[in-house]
Amino acid sequence: MSVPRFWRKQIQRYNLIGTHCRNCNEHFYPPRNMCPTCRRDGDIESYKFTGNGEIVSFTVIRAAAEGFEHQTPYVLAIVKLDEGARLTTQIVCNDLSQIHMGMRVRPVFRKLGDGGEKGMIYYGTKFVPVKPLKHD
Amino acid sequence: MRDVAIIGIKNTKFGEMWDNSFRDIFVEAGVGSLEDAGVSGEEIDGLYVGNMSGGQFVEQEHIGALIADYSGLAKNLHVPSTRLEAACASGGLALRQAIFGVASGYQDIVVAAGVEKMTDVSSSVASAALAAASDREWEGIMGATFPGLYAMIARMHMHMYGTTSEQMAEVAVKNHSNGFMNPISQYRRKITVEDVLNSIMVADPLHILDCSPITDGASSLVLAPADVAHKYTDTPVYIRASAQASDTISLHDRRDITTLDATVAAAKRAYEMANLGPSDIDIVELHDCFTIAEICAIEDLGFVEKGEGGRFTEDGETAIGGKIPVNTSGGLKSCGHPVGATGIKQAVEIVHQLRGEAGKRQIQGANVGLTHNVGGSGATAVVHILSRER
User: How high is the ipTM of this complex?
Assistant: First the structure.
């Protein structure tokens, strides 16, 4: 992704800032400027999420997307934040077998990728399990 | 609005075609469909071409003009040519736009085609091109792949309805069995449930044999006003309905990730337009980009209750000889998935079946067929209903 394209939503990506419709009280992350329910009757404001949420569904990616080859296997998940917004993210975890649907997670600031030797480094929000993992 | 008929069809071979270029395959399909219809170049009022990403796969945009030119329809005849894009539903969109042209009366004889040349780039470049059909800024940047997105659908379907990996594998086994009988198939090879379950894991719970392949191929249809169709062919196939619907671009924003609401909406509109219901459909070509996608689609198109798709498949009801034969062509899984061509290829297979010329794959007495073409993880769905009777 090009630098300006990433940069203009950098604050939202780093800080988990989305939007909220004051008219219907729905929260959005990624941020939306148009409420899909209220449309032009909506009243959109910026909103910083607490970041707590749970895993809706997940997969372990073993054939990576371009640029993610060195990360395999990695956990891709849909996380539902406590305010109701859902987003696609990665779960950072050293024991993939303990990840499950409904697992409580919290956000962490992580490197997402980079634009090569001369490109910028992309940072953003991934998630980790809230409770410590069980160890034998 | 005028009734519209399909009077000519052609698929190229699907697969990894090293010897044939992008322009070779679309000319082969287009000319083949015109010969099948007995139509001359002078009669053609317009071309509509589904193509997802010539820009990324062969570094070529302006696809419409290129196709008109190399089909011999540009330099002297100046036939208008339009490229349609909706990711993997580009072909379905091209058919729909061609129908608009004829139904509205603006045009009489039109060509609806689809083409994709995907193997001139490495598979990682092809995968990246396909990933652009998801939300690049908020799914792709997190490392999402299409198998990954459909894997999350599959895991939720398994959780909610008890669907199993074996039931998903049955989709692949059935489609390979059908594709084995289709001369254009990319994979003319039968497989077993064990083959699928023992194949490498791409994104849990999806194995490589749960996924459709990367494919080169082109398909073409010739459309005409129904009133004149018999002038060209003794076996016209009539368009009974054309419907399209949209949903959120990202999977995470869906109402329910196991239901493609765009498919539900497009199917509802199509059934209403044709004044038919799921029980009136004899054969289906649907969008099995992954095995779980076929299970969701037979539910969302109304052939079974939500959650019953896995069991219905396991019971053989979607096989040739079952209650509702699905993907007699081999589907995307075995016949191949040249993304821009797929929506057109589905209609070509239905026409083969309704004409009674599908050989070993023939469903006896098939009268009404349905096609279902999906873009991305379900943000676009296109449904057409075709029949022998007007």
Answer: 0.96
* A66-95 residues touching B, CB cutoff 8 A: 66, 68, 71, 74, 76-78, 86-90
Q: Would you say residue A135 has pLDDT above 80? A: no
C-alpha distance from A30 to closest chain B C-alpha (Å) = 7
Contacts A76 to B, Cβ<8 Å: 142-145, 148, 152, 203
CA nearest to B140, candidates B252, B237, B28, B285 = B252
Q: Under CATH, to which class is A3-129 assigned?
A: mainly beta
Strand ranges inside B118-208, DSSP E: 201-203, 206-207
Using the 8-state DSSP alphabet, how is residue B89 labeled? T
CA–CA gap between residue B202 and residue B205 (Å, rounded): 8
Question: Could you tell me the residue ranges of all domains in chain A?
Answer: 3-129
pLDDT tens figures, B49-71 = 999 999 999 999 999 999 999 99
The conformation of residue B151, written as its DSSP 8-state character, comes to H
Domains along chain B? 4-122+214-232 (3.40.47.10)
Q: A89 and B124 in contact by Cβ < 8 A? A: no
The residue count for chain A: 136
pTM of the model: 0.97
Amino acid at B82: T
pLDDT in tens, A70-114: 999 999 999 999 999 999 999 999 899 999 999 999 999 999 988
Is B217:B25 a contact under the CB 8 Å cutoff?
yes
